[in-house]
Structures are given as structure tokens and as C-alpha cells.
Amino acid sequence: xxxxxxxxxxxxxxxxxxxxxxxxxxxxxxxxxxxxxxxxxxxxxxxxxxxxxxxxxxxxxxxxxxxxxxxxxxxxxxxxxxxxxxxxxxxxxxxxxxxxxxxxxxxxxxxxxxxxxxxxxxxxxxxxxxxxxxxxxxxxxxxxxxxxxxxxxxxxxxxxxxxxxxxxxxxxxxxxxxxxxxxxxxxxxxxxxxxxxxxxxxxxxxxxxxxxxxxxxxxxxxxxxxxxxxxxxxxxxxxxxxxxxxxxxxxxxxxxxxxxxxxxxxxxxxxxxxxxxxxxxxxxxxxxxxxxxxxxxxxxxxxxxxxxxxxxxxxxxxxxxxxxxxxxxxxxxxxxxxxxxxxxxxxxxxxxxxxxxxxxxxxxxxxxxxxxxxxxxxxxxxxxxxxxxxxxxxxxxxxxxxxxxxxxxxxxxxxxxxxxxxxxxxxxxxxxxxxxxxxxxxx
Amino acid sequence: xxxxxxxxxxxxxxxxxxxxxxxxxxxxxxxxxxxxxxxxxxxxxxxxxxxxxxxxxxxxxxxxxxxxxxxxxxxxxxxxxxxxxxxxxxxxxxxxxxxxxxxxxxxxxxxxxxxxxxxxxxxxxxxxxxxxxxxxxxxxxxxxxxxxxxxxxxxxxxxxxxxxxxxxxxxxxxxxxxxxxxxxxxxxxxxxxxxxxxxxxxxxxxxxxxxxxxxxxxxxxxxxxxxxxxxxxxxxxxxxxxxxxxxxxxxxxxxxxxxxxxxxxxxxxxxxxxxxxxxxxxxxxxxxxxxxxxxxxxxxxxxxxxxxxxxxxxxxxxxxxxxxxxxxxxxxxxxxxxxxxxxxxxxxxxxxxxxxxxxxxxxxxxxxxxxxxxxxxxxxxxxxxxxxxxxxxxxxxxxxxxxxxxxxxxxxxxxxxxxxxxxxxxxxxxxxxxxxxxxxxxx
Lengths: 443, 443
Description:
homodimer
């Protein structure tokens, strides 16, 4: 399945793309929508290459994607990928992104004849502002980390931490689309109904700012070509419905959530903000990092509609994930962000293909640009917890930061940064970049 | 607050609008998007009047909404209301719909001088096909009927039917936007993971068609002018964010839902189909049917952010609601639909303004065209139950239909029709029309 765009020997004429530490070598070629920071330009599609962005709209205008040069499929795909949202490009399916990736790979590699055409179309990433790359019709959040489900379950239901459906059903729920924002958001601490702990003697809720504000480390999955209402996507074709991956922070107000969530699930505890990283890394770029999806033999094996040889042999992705925190005091004193935890997406109990097949098995229609969240990705060890709820054991064991501060939950001014990347000896590093967000004060 | 458009003495030159039984007298003037059935015309905005639709795009082209004739506000509003979706019209706020309603009321009443301009712009309702009238960014479903919450709670948690948060929090969750369809949908019976009853000896789920397919009788509320992320809508301004009401059937697969919903709420048990009625009745048209919102004095009173003199004096709407069933056998033998239940929206435990204020109190942004569902509207008496789950007591007491058939849940070929209308002596009937849908076979 590896095509020439993954060849680890490839080098680009953009020298920063040849740095072994870059997230965006010529083998990656992720998509975003951007404009120059501070400008009022229209947002348009771009491709990351080293520390630069290839402006697809400008390159198209310059003739770099003429049919004569790149063929009709890549030319059409470049047109769709140049727009202010990538929905049309996503909807054109895997073939379109494969064709455009090939054209981009040829145009950006060292021996390219298009260098003079493309060089004027580069914008430095540090001079760019990004937007949410798709009109997200529906956002679904899953719960695929059994380590997270177990850790949270142990805090709130020590007798039966894992519910009986967990190992059978890829648990998910619908989230809020309108409050999904691009990395860099500073948002007000949400207020809501909160019931004071029983020890306080209070028995009725009050309206107030959340005191248990948290992050959740997740992988986001954008839907490419969707399905019609009533037509499930079989597991064998499920990955054809996937465009690519990003990082996602599902900010959560644990106190609001705890009081509201029975019986219909999280609502105001989650829908005040969700942040995503700007760059979408395609499944094609992640190809070298596919690994078997496994499940302990003593666990129930998936029902047939969630099982396939392909899932078993390469359903998971070896994707490193990290959470970093920089408090206001750290920022003031020039102290670098501190790493809170690290995990890996390969530990997910359900694979991406399984999420897609499950989501549509009842006929529910997925649409291009829809976003699926993986749910908090926690590792089996405490240092791999993907939320502060887990790290501080619901506040019972506050974290001690290197500068002497402590945290049970997030404080005003805290910036949370999540990073994700694939790397392995003999392969080229493929990065997802980062998603950051900052907690403002309460209103 | 009554303006001249509510005057019960008003008559229209369209005679069917003067029938006391019509849902669409000149006092109503609801909005939809439509085209001629069987045509490939573009969908555009229209207004119901008697058994006709005034084609807003055609009337605009004919000059009926020129600034000289109707003024700039109504002219702009007519332009926005002519489009294939009503989002721009909704986003223009209450002032826009008030202005357009006034112009329409003048143009359609008996003494109108615009009759010759408007008459060629009428399309018979029975010759029209409708579309979902807005691009619905987010769909939120609430749970505002305490009678429904109690009835369902008694079935599944007889010891504590009502959860402790119910009387404090307007419980809601995010539903699926992509599978919202206009009235008339025939959809495949959904499949999903189902655990056989314990008595069967089975202990593991199987994939299969839902055997407990149900409807839910709801009122839908479209958001007009929304709010920015981080800026809650105070209760005093909450109704300014509401465009109007429709009927909504939140189809539900009880067996899929029962197995999947812990801990994150309903998902595949709900998101295979939601149907809405075509006509959106504005709050202005419902003005004569506003009634006090009350709560038993022994119940907790709402927190300050959910309370206001306006809510107390006129927060509820006296809106009759009915569910009708026509089975395949009834249709074959020419038997008319049978009324399963009747209820009234005035019994809702939470008012529309409270839903809006609660939804945004954490800073969540509502957008024009967003849809809020009221949750199943059940009355306190058994004949007022808004779902078959309640009517058949989860299948324990099958319903006996007049033609001898029985129903515990919906069977293939069943058509469910919901109707809603306001009426009172001395006032003109204001109807919401109906929403219907039919259960197809399983795939």
C-alpha cells in the first residue's frame, strides 16, 4: 500500500522540510485553511511543508495545477482544496487526496521542475492565522480509551468501574459543532449549575464559574466521503470515508457535567469550547505508522460488523500524544511549558474503521467535514492520563509543578498544549503539530 | 404586545384562509421552503395562507416587496426569506420577521391593493414539496415534560423515577443534525446492537433490526438571532433569540438506546431519523396563546438565571398536540388514522426562554437555524403519553387499535402523524400543520 509519496529518501527543495525534527516533511503534506495573520484576506487551503505553507489558491492561479501539468484528477482536487473550507475536497474522496498528494510530492521534491512556479506561493507558518478547516456539520465524540474509561470509572463507580456495554459498543455521543474553534482560542471560564460537595452541607445547586475545569487529550477524525441516510458504511469500506486526523482538546467542566449528565449525557459541561489543531494529516501520510489492532484474547471479540482482517492487521495508528501546561506564572517568568503526560493512540480499544462502521450501522448519515473525536486517550500507566481529572484523581492528589505551583484542575491563565507525532527508526517523522488553548477568567 | 396582525377580525382575499378550521389564517403567516412537487425548481421561501403558499421569491420578483411599497425593513426581510434556506432571515432577528409579517398581513387582507400583484404568486399547498427550512448547524433535544420523565422513570427506575437534577436543570443533550428530514420521510428500520431480554438466557448483544421502534411527540424551536461564543443570553432577552416553532418527531429505537446509553447518553438509538413539519410558526403569531408558566409551589423554584416576571406571566404556550397512527392494514382498507394520544405544550416544566438561557449560560453559542427539541410532550394522564413506550408501558400492555390490530411498538408500514394547533373562543385558530413519517422495512 505504500506509494512513492512515502519514500523516506525523498527530499524537498524547501530545506526546512528536510530537518529530521520537522512535523511536516515532504512525506506528510497535511492540509489546513489559512491566511496571513492580521490580514483580512480570504481563508484558503494550504499545505504544510517544513516551516512553510504552500498557498494552494495562489499555486493554482500560477498554473501549478493545470490539467496539462498534473492531470485532471489532481487539478480538480487542487481546485477543491483551495477553498475557504475543505468540505468539497474531503467529499471528493480518497482518490482526490491521493492524486493531489502525488502532484504536491512531485512539485515539492528536490528535483522538481515547478520550483520557480511554487516558490512565490509560499507563506511562512509563523506569519499565518488558521481557521477551522471544514464546515463541521456534526461532531461526535467517542470514548475509545479503555484506560480512561477505567480510570474515570474507578473514581466514580469503584464497585463496577467499567460498564457492561464498554467492550461491545464503541460508546459515543453527539457534541456541539458551533463551539469548535481553531488552536489558539482563549475562552472564558464557563459558568453553570454546580452542587457543592456533600461535606459542605449544601444541598441545592448554585450558578457559578466551574471550579473543576479540565482538558481532554483526543485525536480528531474528519469524515471524507460520507454515506446516504439509510445506507450503513461496511467495515471493509470504513476507512474510505476518512479524510484525515488532527489533535482535539475536548475542554470539560467536571462539576457542571457531574450534576447535569444523568440521564442524557454531557451537555453544558462540554459544549462551551472544543479546540482543534489546524493541520489535517491524511491517512495516506500515516500509512507507514499503521500497526495491528489487538484486543486481549480474554475480552469479547468484536461483532462481525466491527471486525475485519484489515482492522486486525493494521487498524491502529502508532501516534504519540502529549499534553503540556504553561501557567500564567510560568509564562511571566519565561518558564517553558511542562509536560503533564504522554500517551499513544495505538492503545485505543476501538479503531477508526470501527467507529465509522458503528456510527452508520443504523443508517445515520455521515457527511464530508463531520468530525469524530476519539475520546480522551489515556495510557495504562498514571503518567499517561489524558485529563487532569485522572492525573489529580479528581483533585484528591494535586499535581506539583516544577515551579512549585500545584494544580487539581485548570486555573485562569493556564495554557494547555497538545502535540502528536509518529516516529520510528527507518521512517520519516510525521507530525500533527499542536493544539493550544488558554483559560480566560470567568465572566 | 398584540399588534394588528393578530386582529381576529382580519379576513383575506384568499377565501380558504377565512375557513375557521384552517391552520393558516391571515393571523398565522408561517414560513417554509418549498418548490412544486415533482419539479426540479430551486427551493425558496414561502408563506402559508389558507390552502395556498405565497411564493416569496416570485412575489419579490413581481415587485410586491419593493422598498417603496413595504419599506426597507420588510423589503430586506423578504429578500432573506426568499432564499433556499431561511437562516439569513432567522439571523436578521425578531424585527425582520415582525416587519415582513406586517407587510404580508397588509398584502393578503381583503382590502389589499396588492391582490393583482400577489395572486399570480400563489402555489397550492397540495402541489408543493418542502425541504428542511434551515441549515441546522446544531440540534439540541431537551426533556421538558416532567410527566414523560416520570413515566419513563417509573418503567426503568421505579424506586427513584425522577432524578435529583430534574427540577433544577433543563436537561438536554446534543442530537444529530444530518438525519433531520422534512415531514413525509420513509426510513428503514434501524439496526443496532441489541441485548435480548434476560429471560431469553442470552447475555451478549447481537446486531439486528430494532424491535422496539418508537416515536416521540415534540415541539421544535428554531433559533433566530444567536449569540457569540462566551456571551450568554440573559433570560430577559431569551425569546428575542427565537424565530418560531414546528412539530418534531424524535424517532427512537428503545432497544438500541437501552444498551448503548450509559454513560454518555442516547446515540444510535436516536440519530437514524428526526422529522420536522414544514411550516415554522413565529412567536408573533403565537402571541394570543401565551399563558402563564407555573410550577407547583412545593417544587424548587428556578435559579435566578432561569426566572423572570415575563416567564411567570406568559412563558408557556397553549398549544394542543396529537399523535395519530395509520398502519399498513388500515391504509390498505381505507381506514383513517387513529388518534393515539393528545397533550398540550403548556404543561412543559421548562419554558422556551429558560431553555435558551440555560443552553447559553456557559457561553455556548447558538446560531441562526439551530433547532431545539422540547423533548417528548406527555400529559399527566395515560391518554396524554407522547410515546408508545409510555402508552404500552414498555410493551407490557399492547395497544388495541380499532381495527383489531395491536401495537407494543411500531411495525413496518406504520405511519405516524403529529398535529399541533392553538385555539380558544374569541381567538383565531393558529395551526402548526403536521409532521408525518413512515417506518420502512429493515435493510
